[in-house]
Specification:
By secondary structure, the protein is of the alpha/beta class. The chain has 4 helices and 8 strands; from the N terminus they run E-H-E-E-E-H-E-H-E-E-E-H. A 4-stranded mixed sheet has the order 1-4-3-2, with helices on one face. The radius of gyration is 18 Å and the shape is globular. It comes from Pseudoalteromonas rubra. This is Glyoxalase. Pfam families: Glyoxalase.
Length: 155
Amino acid sequence: MTVSAIPDGYHALTPYLITENAAQAIDFYRRAFAAELIMQLPMPDGGVAHAELKIGDSHLMLSDMCPDMHFKSPQQLGGTPVSLMLYVPDVDSTFTQAIAAGATELRPVVDQFYGDRAGTLQDPFGHVWTIGTHQEDLTEQEIMARMAEWMTDDS
């Protein structure tokens, strides 16, 4: 029997987040995004060496920071240059749930020119998430026209 290069149920690309308190992050993602804990490997000091969650149809890996291995949290780095996009059936409900669980709103949920209804938040561990629900299938030309109009309107 041949082993698949990508484990069953995973996609080719899986985000891996580093946090200052992975156990609390796991609890937050479970409350905010209905994440399912797939596995959690403890460190001798009680931290999380590795954990895997499933949100919707996608996996998310995370662990506590380990500066000796160059794994640093957003707080340690002074922010994050990476944002995660999470599609859900009801963006308004999920966004409200994440805020209630402890996230901070960065941009409110609104209808976007590219056909999604979306908003952006920061989780309590410094990671930035855009939560969205796809509402319209648009061509690239339609998106570009709407973007040009949007940029003119906001100037």
